[in-house]
């Protein structure tokens, strides 16, 4: 996999993770207003975006695992950073929503 292909995968991960991040923050704001069903719906939608980001990431991992050379640049690192922080945000939002319910 050349650097251009890896960059496209990186951009795709950033897009999916960014979409999930936005939905998670919106979910937290809805929960703050007591709109728990709507908040849970957005969390589920965010989980789907995270799943898509993981699927994209897995494509690259599978190619590297099969012995193909993969050129990783800053864009891919940026994508990984976005995905990991979004996963952390998802965990925190889950706990915050539960706190709002109490």
UniProtKB/TrEMBL annotation:
Question: Mainly resides where?
Answer: cytoplasm
Binding of Mg(2+), residues:
81
Q: Which domain of life is it from?
A: Bacteria
Active site residues of this protein: 78 (tele-phosphohistidine intermediate)
Q: Where are the transmembrane segments?
A: none
Cleavable signal peptide: none
Is Membrane there in the keyword field? Answer: no
Cofactor binding remark = Binds 1 Mg(2+) ion per trimer.
Instruction: Name the SUPFAM superfamilies on file.
Output: Enzyme IIa from lactose specific PTS, IIa-lac
Cell compartments where the protein resides: Cytoplasm
Listed InterPro entries = PTS_IIA_lac/cel (IPR003188), PTS_IIA_lac/cel_sf (IPR036542)
Keyword annotations: Cytoplasm, Magnesium, Metal-binding, Phosphoprotein, Phosphotransferase system, Sugar transport, Transferase, Transport
Q: Summarize subunit and interaction data from the UniProt record for this chain.
A: Homotrimer.
- Protein name, entry field: PTS system lactose-specific EIIA component
In which organism is this protein found?
Answer: Carnobacterium viridans
Ranked from the top, the taxonomy reads: Bacteria, Bacillati, Bacillota, Bacilli, Lactobacillales
């Amino acid at each position: 996999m050349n650097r251009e292909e890896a960059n496209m995968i990186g951009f795709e991960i950033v897009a999916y993770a960014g979409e999930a991040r936005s939905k998670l923050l919106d979910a937290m704001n809805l929960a703050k207003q007591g709109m728990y069903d709507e908040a849970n719906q957005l969390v589920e939608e965010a989980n789907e975006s995270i799943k898509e980001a993981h699927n994209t990431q897995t494509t690259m991992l599978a190619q590297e695992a099969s012995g193909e050379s993969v050129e990783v640049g800053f864009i891919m690192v940026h994508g990984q950073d976005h995905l990991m922080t979004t996963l952390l945000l998802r965990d925190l939002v889950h706990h915050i929503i539960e706190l709002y319910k109490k």
